[in-house]
Design a protein that fits this description.
Blueprint: E1 2-7, H1 21-39, E2 43-46, H2 47-50, H3 59-76, E3 84-88, H4 95-104, E4 112-115, H5 126-131, H6 136-144, E5 148-151, H7 154-167, H8 169-178, E6 179-181, H9 188-192, E7 204-207, H10 217-230, E8 234-237, H11 248-257, E9 262-264, H12 270-279, E10 282-284, H13 294-301, E11 305-309, H14 314-318, E12 325-326, H15 330-342, H16 344-358, H17 363-385
Parallel strand pairs: 1-2, 1-3, 3-4, 4-5, 5-6, 7-8, 7-10, 8-9, 10-11, 11-12
Helix pairs in contact: 1-17, 7-8, 10-15, 13-16
């Protein structure tokens, strides 16, 4: 199969985590998927390799220039050389625009398959509503333009159906039929390359999420203030904390009161990030929006005991391991965290169980689901034209 792969714009320097979530998962997950498809024997043409670099200007200008150049490149390509267009992800490259380009060129038989990691049809997706308000219909057009829609969880699939149905039940059903739950892949090879048997001298709690409202870092830090007062533990924050973030005051207080126990990673290099995951004991999420949770999957893979809200995709992610889910209050999180700090054997048993759960998101397992969907889209389109 000949695949034209439209990957996301990834601005960070090589080897660094980014405070921008889409760059973080776009870099690793996208590359892992592309490599799987190539290793499976398919011809993958990466659009980013065809676009003229370097891109200049601010981050926003470079990102938009990348999208525009990808559209321009589509106009010049010999589209007949490809069997399918694969978009990772559809809020970077709008399927409606791509479909218009194809139709304008008289190429109506080329199927388009695309990932959506979030959506304006998920009311909890605060990032989209803060930075891209008024895009609900644009997002709906993106979904409607695709031959197949790849989502990361059953939770995401049902969320889209439920909320689109409120506007247009018929269209919601049509979109629902096109959705395939495939997950997102982690990169075991990358994480394992920095594996270590070393441990910190204290039990260590890691927070590896972006500082945005939908991750609610303030709630986490308020709980940690009580935990640090009660227990001799470490706290690692892997991501950059913007100076204007509501959490910055609490961060500074904790760092001042516990200088030897609080570590601020400020976007750790990947080698340190992976090593610290292996050396940590407990990972925590306080997210109000999560369609899958790559940061949590990475913590699961490295055998952390992950404490997660009993909402969003998390019940689906952890399966039968319900003891780590907490009712979404500071009181319940403090209670749950305290118990696992005090119960080492149970904590480590949970880490082993979660590691096994994370293996459902290896490149081979996710890649196979993606590949089958691409093949189905190609086959369906060919059958409809014969």
């Amino acid at each position: 199969m000949r695949i034209l792969f439209l990957e996301a714009f990834t601005p960070q320097r090589k080897g660094l985590l980014s405070a921008d979530t889409k760059a973080r998962w776009g870099t690793i997950c996208g590359e892992v998927l592309k490599n799987y498809l190539i290793q499976a024997g398919h011809q993958v043409t990466s659009i980013s390799q065809l676009v003229i670099h370097p891109l200049k200007g601010s981050l926003a200008q470079r990102e938009m220039a990348y999208s525009i150049r990808c559209y321009q490149k589509l106009l010049k390509l010999q589209i007949d050389r490809y069997d399918v267009i694969f978009i990772f992800h559809i809020f970077q490259h709008f399927p409606g625009v791509i479909k218009k380009i194809l139709f304008s060129l008289g190429k109506r038989n080329l199927p388009i398959v695309g990932y959506t990691h979030g959506s304006h049809w998920d009311p909890s997706d605060a990032f989209r509503f803060i930075y891209f308000p008024g895009f609900q219909i644009v997002d709906l057009a993106c979904l409607d333009s695709l031959d197949r829609i790849l989502v990361v969880s059953e939770y995401m699939k049902q969320t889209l159906f439920k909320n689109i149905s409120k506007l247009n039940p018929k269209l919601a059903k049509e979109i629902h039929k096109k959705i395939k739950v495939v997950g997102l892949p982690i990169s075991p090879d990358l994480i394992d390359s920095f594996k270590t048997s070393r441990r910190f001298s204290r039990l260590t709690i890691i927070f590896n999420h972006t500082f945005i409202p939908s991750k609610n870092p303030v709630m986490f830090l308020r709980v940690m203030k009580r935990i640090l007062k009660k227990y001799n533990v470490n706290l690692i924050i892997t991501r950059e904390v913007p100076q204007k973030d509501p959490a910055i005051k609490l961060i500074k207080e904790l760092k001042k009161d516990y200088p030897d126990q609080v570590f601020l990673g400020n976007n750790l290099p990947l080698n340190k990030y992976c090593r610290f995951l292996w050396m940590s004991d407990i990972q925590i999420s306080t997210a109000t929006h999560e369609s899958l949770g790559i940061a949590t999957l990475e913590a699961m893979y490295t055998k952390n005991c992950c404490l997660l809200p009993n909402q969003c995709c998390y019940p689906e992610l952890v399966g039968d391991c319900k003891s780590i889910l907490y009712s979404y209050t500071e009181k319940e999180l403090f209670k749950k965290l305290s118990w696992f700090i005090e119960h080492r054997t149970e904590r480590r048993q949970i880490g082993e169980i979660l590691h096994k759960r994370s293996l459902n998101y290896t490149p081979a397992k996710v890649g196979m689901k993606v590949l089958r969907t691409l093949e189905e889209a190609v086959r369906t389109r060919r059958d409809s034209t014969n």
